[in-house]
Amino acid sequence: MKNSIEGKVIVITGASSGLGEATARDLASKGARVILGARRKDRIEALAEELGGEGKALAVETDVTDREQVQRLVDAAIDAFGRIDVMINNAGLMQQSLLERLKVDEWDNMIDVNIKGVLYGIAAVLPVMKEQQSGHIINVSSVAGHKVTPAGTVYCATKHAVRAISEGLRTEVTPYGLRTTVVSPGAVATELPDHITDAESADAIQGYYESVAIPADSFARAVAFAIEQPEDVDINEVLFRPTKQEL
Length: 247
Fold this sequence. Notes:
The protein is of the alpha/beta class. The protein contains seven helices and seven strands; from the N terminus they run βαβαβαβαβαβααβ.
C-alpha cells in the first residue's frame, strides 16, 4: 500500500518558481498542506492563495542563507499545522564561469545557498522529526553532483556536497525512522540559467537548455514518487535527465 500524500505537511524552499513551484502545485493537488519559502514574497503569497490559502498553503518569506529565517519557516509550519512530514531543501543557485575568471563572490553565493541553505534546512527540521519519530528530508542535488564540467567547477562542487550531506544524514537518522532522498535533475526548464553572468557560459547553457530541457513537473513527479512509498521503503537517490541529454 502506498503512503498517501494527502494531509502531509510539506515545507518547500525555493518555492517561488521552477522546481519548487511545480512541486508545490503537484503536492497540493494531491492533498498536501504546503509551506512555501522563498525570497520573492509576492510570488509565494500569490501561489499560496492560488493553492487554497489558509489551511492548505502558507507563504513565508525566506532567504536560505540566513539560518534564523529558515528556522522561522519551519516554526511557521509547526505553528500552523502542528508537525512537519516532509522538508524539501530545494533552493539553489547555478552560476557558471571558468575558475580563472575569479568570480569569487559567485563562488561564495553558491556555497551559501546550495550548501549552507541545505544544512540550515536540516538543522531546523531535524529536532522536530526526531521527536516525532517520523519525517522525510528531500535534498536537491543535480546531474552536476555526479559530473564535473568546464566552467561548472564550483557549482558541481556544491552539488557533490549535497549528495555527501544527504548520505551522511541517511546514516544518522535511520534509528529515528526518518527517510532521506536526494534528487539529481538534469536540464530542467527553470530560471536557473538566468543567474549566469559570464557571457560565454550563459550563451552555451541557454542554448543547451533550449534544445534539451524538460518541464519542471518532471522533478515534481520524482519527488511525489519518493514521498508516496510505504514507510518501510526509503528512496535514497533519484537521478534523472532529459532523454536527449548526453552529459
